[in-house]
Amino acid sequence: MSTVASIARLRDGGSTWALGALRGDDAALERLGGALLQRWRSGDRLVVLGNMLGAAGHTPRTIDLMLLLRRRLLARRGAEVEDFVFLRGGQEEMWHKVLQLQFALAPLDVLDWMLARGLADIIEAYGYSIAEGRIACRNGPLAIARWTTGLRERQALQPGHNDLLNALSRAALSVDGRLVFAATGVDPGRPLGEQADAFWWNAQSDGALDEALGKASDGGWPSITRVVRGAGPSRNVVLEEARVLTVSRDTPALVALDADGAVLERIEP
Q1: Which of 144, 135, 136 shows the shortest CA–CA distance to 102?
Q2: Distance between the two ends of the chain, CA-based, in angstroms?
Q3: Which residues, in sequence order, are bridge partners of residue 61?
């Protein structure tokens, strides 16, 4: 895949399709991808809003289907590589962290924290042993390194998975900079370039985030008309007309947006 930008910039064109929070739900992606293939027009763009991995289905098949969907859309007239942007979510961040677990100060605590938040199902879907990982954490960095090397090798057996998961942007901006796309939100108290992990660990509700955006006076936020995120916190109250658009609610979803961030169509599996 092409060199990834920290914050991707979308080119001008038709509709922007935003796909939110699959969490490994391969069946949902199969249905949403089919709908997108029927509706795709020259000049359209696709932003995958992080959290492709997860416990809702079979992660390796989800990534396979995502790669297939990208290839099929790239084959369409007028499609360009930069029209397809994949963002980092919390699930992808945990996956990257577990592959570097030998460098953690308290590796077993870190591993258990991530296992409880969806990582267990991802590791098992790749056919690897969680129990061996916990044992390795008790035996020191060299043992952990052997375990994480095996995990990398399992992922490498799946064509394209390494390339995709190593080519994730932190966020994306529309061509005019008025729309921000992220996995779970933003921190309006910091400029876009200084968000750290706020793009994928934000836990504010639509209302709280909308209020914070309205009060923000620096970091370029007054010029941003909408934040499009893949998912919000549990029990989030969706505000349809707010500056925050949460794409996935109870299930993964796909939305088509115009240049102003207004929803043209919403599709759920």
Answers
A1: 144
A2: 28
A3: none
Mark whether 71 and 111 lie in a shared domain. Answer: no
Which structural domain, as residue segments, surrounds residue 261?
A: 8-89+171-267
Whether 155 is in a domain gets the answer yes
The span from the CA of 103 to the CA of 118, in Å, is 21
d(CA 24, CA 103): 27
Of 162, 190, 213, the one marking the end of a domain is 162
Q: What is the pLDDT of residues 155-185, one digit of tens each?
A: 999 999 999 999 999 999 999 999 999 999 9
Do 66 and 197 share a domain, yes or no? yes
Q: Which residues contact 131 (CB under 8 A, 6 or more apart)?
A: none
Span 85-93, average pLDDT: 97
Q: How far apart are CA 106 and CA 63, in angstroms?
A: 30
Q: Give the count of alpha carbons within 13 A of 122, CB side only.
A: 29
pLDDT of amino acid 34? 98
**Average of per-residue pLDDT across 102-128:** 96
Question: Total structural domains in the chain?
Answer: 2
DSSP 30-81: HHHHHHHHHH--TT-EEEE-S--SSSSS-HHHHHHHHHHHHHHHHTSTT--G
Let me know if residue 1 belongs to a domain.
Answer: no
CB 255 within 8 A of CB 265: yes
Stretch 90-116: mean pLDDT: 97
Q: Does residue 63 sit in the same domain as residue 95? A: no
> Using one digit for the tens of pLDDT, what is the confidence trace for 222-266?
889 999 999 999 888 888 788 999 999 889 999 999 999 999 999
Neighbours of 222 (CB within 10 A): 11
- Of the CA atoms within 13 Å of residue 222, those in its CB half-sphere come to 3
Closest CA to 216 of 241, 179, 225, 115: 225
